[in-house]
Write a structure and sequence with these properties.
Largest sheet: 7 strands, mixed
Number of domains: 1
CATH class: Alpha Beta
Structural class: alpha/beta
CATH topology: Rossmann fold
Number of helices: 11
Distance between the termini: 16 Å
């Protein structure tokens, strides 16, 4: 597995991609979007970019613009578009409501309608027949523990060495993303460099030398794992538990990173 290289024009490409995605309704911040674009541009060659949970297309458009520029193939966008998880319940205005048409409209407006391989389906159904290698696995679907675990288990075996898995809302009040990230990623020597950017938790799949990162992953785990106990009941937090959650979350390093800073985290494995 060779060193990860940053395309010389990446910052400009991220700027343009964010312009096309920023006004699409969704929950993705700019620093998170730029991280997704960086990952796609730097590690996904040779494997598919798979997005679980598309909503109205914000991250889809961001990823697809980057993929289009670098000739990476279409973004595989998997979502039943029926507001089927807790995060999206407030958007289910009536029985049978769907985000699908808005999703397609936003991709067309962003100029990437032909750069998305759309699966209007549950992720478990797509995973059952999936047989392609993955370079970047972006998990932003059902945020319950059962849902996040199923998404991870359903696709992780296809992730290429050097590829990246990332979870959205790992530092929001959802039990699934943070628990799967801590238990299945940070505690596993299959993974090397790992971190948070805002509410995204990410890690590189490096089964050959993940053990070199064991101490660094453990340090991150010590800061992130205490959140799990507060979320185990999968209920909305109020009062003291909510204050405790905010305090514990503040201890997790989650600042924005430039592409250069992010790649340096990956390259540091050889110096460990």
């Amino acid at each position: 597995m060779g060193a990860v290289e940053i395309p010389g024009d990446l910052n400009a490409v991220l700027d343009e991609a964010w312009k096309s995605a920023r006004d699409i309704p969704g929950f993705l911040g700019e620093s998170e979007a730029r991280l997704l674009g960086t990952i796609a541009a730097c590690v996904s060659r040779g494997g598919a970019i798979v997005e679980i949970g598309s909503f109205k297309g914000k991250s889809t458009a961001m990823l697809a613009r980057v993929a289009m520029h670098y000739g990476l193939g279409p973004v595989v966008a998997i979502d039943p578009h029926n507001f089927n998880n807790v995060e999206l319940e407030e958007h289910r205005t009536m029985p049978g409501a769907s985000s699908y048409e808005e999703f397609l409209d936003h991709l067309r407006a962003a100029g990437v309608a032909d750069r998305a391989e759309v699966h209007r389906a549950y992720s478990a159904d797509v995973a059952a027949g999936w047989d392609r290698s993955i370079g970047f696995l972006w998990i932003d679907g059902d945020h319950s523990y059962r849902g996040a675990k199923a998404d991870f288990d359903g696709f992780i075996r296809h992730l290429l060495p050097g590829g990246v898995v990332a979870f959205h809302d790992a530092l929001h009040e959802f039990a699934g993303p943070i628990r799967v990230f801590v238990e299945d990623v940070l505690r596993s020597d299959r993974f090397g460099a790992a971190g948070f950017v805002q509410s995204i938790a990410w890690a590189q799949f490096t089964p050959e030398y993940g053990a070199r990162f064991r101490l660094r992953r453990a340090a991150l785990e010590r800061k992130a794992a205490p959140l799990i106990a507060l979320l185990k009941d999968e209920r909305e937090l109020h009062g003291l538990p909510k204050l405790q959650f905010k305090l514990l979350r503040s201890r997790v390093p989650r600042g924005a990173v430039t592409p250069q800073e992010w790649v340096a985290l990956l390259d540091s494995a050889t110096a460990s």
